[in-house]
């Protein structure tokens, strides 16, 4: 799967309680449509359908994603065992929740976990989901368990919680030349 050169602005999909545009509508009711809770880009690959099938390869490159008001990541990418994911040369700006969320669709294959290479991206302005939220991350990058990640030459800035939230414990995380 290759996703290359998209420009996605979810701003027009966001719904506000008043014309002052200070508070997002998170749940429908009273004739108001809610703000979408899924990210601008969500890629979740399951198990290959054939025994012995080639693991998934995903490239997400040269994209711009702005104004996503999700709780799960403006860009969320999950892969199955043995998968290889590259995320390069993207700009992800002004989102609630994580800018980039990386994960695995299974915990059963720890020894053959998917690998992620994140290189030359800019991720900035990750805001809390709402003012009262303390349990949902607002990090530039959110990394779940059971994945191997290398992040090189990226710019991560202005996150309400952690710049990088890493749940991987005993899994490798390679960070080099990031700002």
What are the salient characteristics of this protein?
globular; six-stranded parallel beta sheet; mainly beta; 179 residues; five-stranded parallel beta sheet
Task: Give an overview of the whole structure.
This protein has strands at 2-4, 7-9, 41-44, 57-61, 64-66, 75-79, 84-88, 91-96, 100-104, 115-119, 122-127, 141-143, 148-152, 155-159, 164-166, 173-176. It has 179 residues and is an all-beta fold. The strands form 3 sheets. It has a 6-stranded parallel sheet with strand order 1-4-7-10-13-16, with no helix packed on it. A 5-stranded parallel sheet has the order 2-5-8-11-14, with no helix packed on it. Strands 3-6-9-12-15 form a 5-stranded parallel sheet, with no helix packed on it. The protein is globular, with a radius of gyration of 17 Å.
């Amino acid at each position: 799967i290759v996703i290359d050169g998209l420009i996605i602005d979810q701003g027009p999909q966001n719904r506000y309680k008043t014309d002052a545009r200070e508070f997002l509508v998170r749940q429908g009711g009273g004739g108001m449509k809610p703000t979408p809770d899924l990210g601008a880009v969500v890629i979740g690959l399951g198990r290959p359908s054939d025994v012995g099938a080639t693991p998934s390869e995903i490239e997400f490159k040269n994209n711009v994603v702005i104004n996503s008001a999700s709780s799960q990541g403006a860009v969320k990418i999950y892969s199955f065992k043995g998968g290889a994911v590259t995320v390069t040369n993207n700009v992800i700006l002004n989102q609630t929740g994580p800018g980039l969320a990386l994960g695995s669709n299974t915990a059963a294959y720890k020894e053959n976990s998917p690998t992620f290479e994140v290189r030359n991206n800019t991720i900035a302005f990750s805001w809390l989901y709402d003012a009262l939220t303390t349990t949902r991350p607002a990090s530039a990058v959110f990394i779940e368990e059971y994945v191997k990640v290398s992040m090189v030459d990226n710019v991560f800035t202005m996150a309400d919680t952690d710049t990088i939230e890493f749940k991987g414990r005993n899994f490798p995380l390679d960070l080099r030349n990031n700002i």
